[in-house]
Design a protein that fits this description.
Elements: H1 5-9, H2 12-15, E1 22-26, H3 33-42, E2 46-50, E3 65-67, H4 71-80, H5 89-111, H6 116-125, E4 132-135, H7 139-147, E5 156-159, H8 169-177, E6 183-188, H9 189-194, H10 196-204, E7 209-214, H11 235-240, H12 261-271, E8 277-278
Parallel strand pairs: 1-2, 2-3, 4-5, 4-6, 6-7, 7-8
């Protein structure tokens, strides 16, 4: 299992020099654009889609063979046939590159300023094993997918896609907290504004909810879209939508700022498991 595959796949010179011969795809179509483009470029000789429920989970139309077996049946049959799963040069190349990428990313995020990627990484790492990690849409879930590291014991991970992708996320996380498990919510500032009533209500009810909010004064995800490069569009007003909101005076909400990774870790340690809502 590779933690940093998506980062490696963005380096076409490396990824295309180490293409797969066989792809066995389990579950729904991959969401990674880098993975999809890599498979389109390298065109593996064999591309199997394991689809026991006959749902045709192949939005990319890259699969050459559809396997109507459960994952357990398929790999049990391979095991019984003496399938060799030993390490190969190809495997070692990818695992070595993955380990090196992990070291570089870790060094950059741990030693530099508190980037959004580091916030996602630390928020997940500091969620208790028995807790719930609730992640909002837009950039938080993407940063989590790209930069979170593997854990021996993992918290329950939940998410919710509202009417606009970000509506009702705070309320949903507060609902998860009613189970009695400590909940950490990773969310952006726009999504928080879209459910400010849910935030105030959670505080009013003394719900144990720790909210890690990335406040970059607007919708950061839109800067990655092609529209951001068009000079004839008022990008800030229509897409970025800076709000200038100050969150430190919300009734009942304990509000604190973290400027470094160490501060975020310390604040989370004092907030998680404490009665009341922390932001």
């Amino acid at each position: 299992m590779l933690e940093n595959a998506d980062h490696l796949l963005k380096h076409a010179s490396f990824a295309d020099a180490n293409p797969p011969d066989v792809v066995v795809r389990i579950g729904n179509s991959p969401t990674s654009k880098s993975l999809r483009l890599w498979l389109e470029r390298t065109k593996p000789a064999h591309h199997l889609v394991v689809d026991p429920d006959e749902r045709w989970n192949d939005a990319t139309f890259l699969g050459g063979t559809v396997v109507r077996q459960t994952v357990l049946d398929l790999f049990s049959a391979q095991s019984e046939s003496g399938f060799d799963r030993g390490a190969t040069g190809w495997t070692n190349t990818w695992t070595s590159a993955d380990a090196r990428a992990g070291e570089v990313i870790g060094t950059e995020l741990d030693s530099g300023p508190l980037l959004e990627a580091a916030v996602a990484r630390l928020s997940y790492a500091n969620t208790p094993d028995h807790g719930v990690f609730y992640v909002s849409n837009s950039m938080p879930v993407r940063d989590l997918d790209s930069f979170a590291t593997r854990r021996a014991a993992v918290p329950l991970a939940l998410g919710n896609r509202g009417a606009s992708g970000i509506d009702g996320v705070v309320s949903s996380a507060a609902g998860a907290a009613r189970t009695g498990r400590p909940v950490v919510l990773l969310i952006g500032d726009i999504a928080t504004l879209h459910d400010i009533g849910g935030l105030i209500d959670a505080a009013r009810r003394d719900i144990d909810l720790t909210i890690v909010m990335v406040n970059n004064n607007g919708g950061g995800i839109f800067s990655f879209l092609p529209i951001a490069s068009h000079d004839d569009v008022n990008f800030d007003e229509i897409f970025h939508t800076p709000h200038g909101t100050v969150y430190d005076s919300l009734p009942g909400v304990r509000h604190q700022l973290a400027a470094t990774g160490a501060e975020l870790t310390e604040l989370m340690a004092s907030a998680v498991g404490t009665v009341g809502t922390d932001l």
